[in-house]
Amino acid sequence: MQDRQKGVLLTTLGMLIISPDALVLRWLDSPPLQILAWRGLIMATGLALLLSWRYRGRLLTALHRCGWTGVGCALCYCFSTLCFVSAVSLTGAASALVIFSLSPLLAAALSWVWLGERLALRTLLAIGLCLAGVLLIVADAPSGQSRSGTLLALVAATLLAGNLSLARSQPGIDMSPALIPGALLVSLLGFVFGGTPALAFNQWLGLALMAGVLLPLAFMLIQLGPRWISATEVGLLLLLEVVLGPLWVWWLLDEAPSRTVLLGGALILVTLLVHSLHGWRRRPPPVLA
């Protein structure tokens, strides 16, 4: 299997695994910062166990290899998560989602300026079509307008793009261990500013499964993606959650999306499928020194 194919498959698998996250958050129905406090702690523990098994006890060595680039990835992951959660509470999920979906464009800009990566025309077209799909998904949803919420969502998208570009800048190093301190920092800030949620026993089990098993596995796969494909393409594949998340809620919580939402989701899925198939045998653009 070519490196490019490996990157696409790992990132897509990671997005499929993480897609029920919105369903779990909706089901828990607690203040986001309170959920993030425990989710960050459980995720850090689960990811540490998973990576310890993967590296056969040499996790500290793998974490040390990440260096200052890993510190940047950890900080970008932490504050991107916090900014997006805060943006949702201030400006509404619809507006925050639209702004957050700019991350592929921002990743493309960062990779072009910083890494010297050329952006293919098909990728530019895919970004445009995916953004159109996201706009369709949120078209019917009411949203409160907040300048601070809009700014936070833009910061979150920029930090996500920065995380992917940082990981892409060191293709020979696995940056997934850097997510452990990032998740711990999310947890610390969540406890300081949010506190502890009051959850039923089955809700704690659901949170433990999502944060302790699915999230560590998903983020490890997603963080590996930029080693073999561009940060822009990883950002495009992240839009799968925009489509799959509401479908989980529809299936299990019986909240049916409108025809407009279904149309937007179909546009994103078809665009990503065509884009991935078209570039299946192509190699990623080289990182220029």
UniProtKB/TrEMBL annotation:
Domain of life from the UniProt record: Bacteria
Domain named EamA: residues: 6-138
Q: Membrane-crossing residues? A: 36-55, 67-88, 94-115, 124-142, 148-166, 178-198, 204-222, 234-253, 259-277
Instruction: List, alphabetically, the GO terms of the cellular component aspect.
Output: membrane
Is Transmembrane helix included in the keywords of this UniProt record? Answer: yes
Q: Which UniProt keywords apply?
A: Membrane, Transmembrane, Transmembrane helix
Q: What is this protein called?
A: EamA family transporter
